[in-house]
Design brief:
Elements (H helix, E strand, L loop, with lengths): L3 H4 L34 H9 L6 H22 L8 H11 L5 H4 L23 H20 L28 H12 L6 H20 L3 H6 L5 E5 L5 E8 L5 E6 L1 H13 L27 H21 L5 H9 L2 H14 L4 H8 L12 H14 L21
Antiparallel strand pairs: 1-2, 2-3
Helix pairs in contact: 2-3, 3-6, 7-11, 8-10, 8-13, 11-12
Keywords: Cell cycle, Cell division, Chromosome partition, Cytoplasm, DNA integration, DNA recombination, DNA-binding
Protein name: Tyrosine recombinase XerC
Organism: Paraburkholderia humisilvae
């Protein structure tokens, strides 16, 4: 088998593993007589584990990413089958996650997410934070536990790793401060609108920031969301309320309060795309409309790239204003869609929105089945959220003389 097959990264769908590394003779393999899955090699065993989550798109993608990374690391770095990894190997892998090297082999050159069939695809878009590293090991522990239960492995090497101390509750650090948020808004407000393309890019950039910030949505919720999920109903006093119904993590439905400000921004965005101001019930138009082509939902990677383009543009604009802005520009350049979700939660808390309302808005805890009867609590959550959590585009003045280049997407 050629050396290239051992040193080249590839997604699990197309990965070709040399027979001497495929795990059929892994030292941690269990007695074949007790095996409960048909897999005879590590790659098929990992695929069998992933098949349990095929109907949960977000979970599947997350679990595939972690299983794939470890499998590739075992083949390329440890040069042994996944089913031969030891406790000491897993210690090395845990450290590797914080700094995947060599970067050219493991990390996307631009930090962007490329399609899995694209030759530029890499397992990582950058080094993992400590929190992401812990989450990766939690997922892999789940995988190894399942492989042991399936009779494929004798033991779980991750079970021997000591968990890091979590007695201290860490503060969220991946969010935009008030000053940085104002910088990003100022950049978007100054985007050129001389050509039809520029107008479309400007409208989408503004809507993208507004949607993530005011609704605190996950990137998967924006990618799969439809405009028909906005709906209105009357509160206990007969006043009209707008809500957004979304399908979140673990396929859990939740309702997110929608302010008059967000509805105004939605109307602005729809009109810029030649659509009626308000969505119709059941409308299939995606929450984020592609810049060209049919109005089909974007992938999570495409949404990620769209928001990263805004942040990169804002960073470049700040740098153009002088070297004294370089530190702020670098921080904005690090930001992602998930930073806006953290920013939304932080701003709601700072504005005095009750923490229970924030919990339900962000979907951190599933709603109790009886919540459909708690109209008074819903009404108060709606009042607090839309009354205190604002984006305030009207406070940002656009500069008609600006000639910055348009954003791609």
């Amino acid at each position: 088998m050629s050396k290239a097959l051992i040193t080249s990264v590839a997604p699990v769908e197309t990965l070709v593993v040399p027979s001497q590394l495929d795990g059929r003779d892994g030292w941690n393999r269990a007695d074949r007589a007790h095996k409960q899955i048909s897999a005879s090699n590590d790659l098929d065993a990992v695929r069998a584990w992933l098949a349990n989550f095929a109907d949960k798109k977000t979970t599947f993608a997350s679990y595939r990413k972690e299983g794939e990374r470890l499998l590739l690391w075992a083949l390329i770095d440890a040069r042994k089958p996944l089913s031969s990894l030891t406790h000491e190997d897993l210690l090395r892998y845990r450290a590797f996650l914080l700094d995947p090297q060599p970067a050219a082999q493991w990390v996307s050159a631009t930090g962007s997410k490329f399609a899995r069939a694209d030759p530029r695809w890499r397992p990582f878009n950058g080094a993992l934070s400590a929190a992401s590293q812990r989450q990766a090991m939690v997922i892999l522990n789940t995988m190894f536990t399942w492989l042991v239960s399936a009779g494929y492995l004798r033991g779980n090497p991750i079970a021997l790793l000591r968990s890091g101390s979590r007695q201290t509750k860490h503060r969220v650090t991946r969010y935009l401060s008030a000053a940085l948020w104002e910088d990003v808004k100022a950049f978007v407000a100054r985007l050129p609108t001389q050509t039809p393309r520029q107008k479309t890019v400007s409208a989408r950039s503004r809507w993208l920031l507004t949607l993530f910030y005011l609704q605190g949505l996950r990137i998967s919720e924006v990618a799969t969301g439809r405009m028909g999920q906005f709906f209105r109903r009357l509160d206990a006093s007969g006043n009209e309320q707008w809500w957004l119904e979304t399908l979140g993590k673990g396929d859990k439905e939740r309702l997110v309060p929608v302010s008059a400000e967000l509805m105004s921004e939605l109307s602005r965005y729809r009109l810029a795309n030649g659509m009626p101001a308000l969505p119709q019930p059941g409308e299939r138009t995606p929450l984020l409309i592609p810049l060209s082509g049919p109005k089909q939902p974007l992938t999570r990677s495409a949404v990620h790239d769209a928001i990263k383009q805004v942040f990169r543009g804002a960073a470049a604009w700040l740098r153009s204003r002088g070297p004294e802005h370089s530190d702020r520009a670098a921080e904005i350049e690090r930001a992602s869609a998930h930073w806006l979700r953290h920013t939304a939660g932080s701003r709601m808390a700072d504005s005095g929105v009750d923490l229970r309302a924030i919990r339900d808005n962000l979907g951190h805890v599933s709603l109790n089945t009886t919540s459909i009867y708690l109209h008074a609590e819903d009404d108060e959550r709606h009042r607090q959220t839309v009354g205190r959590h604002r984006v305030d585009w009207e406070t940002v003045q656009a500069d008609p003389k600006t000639t910055e280049g348009e954003q791609g997407g």
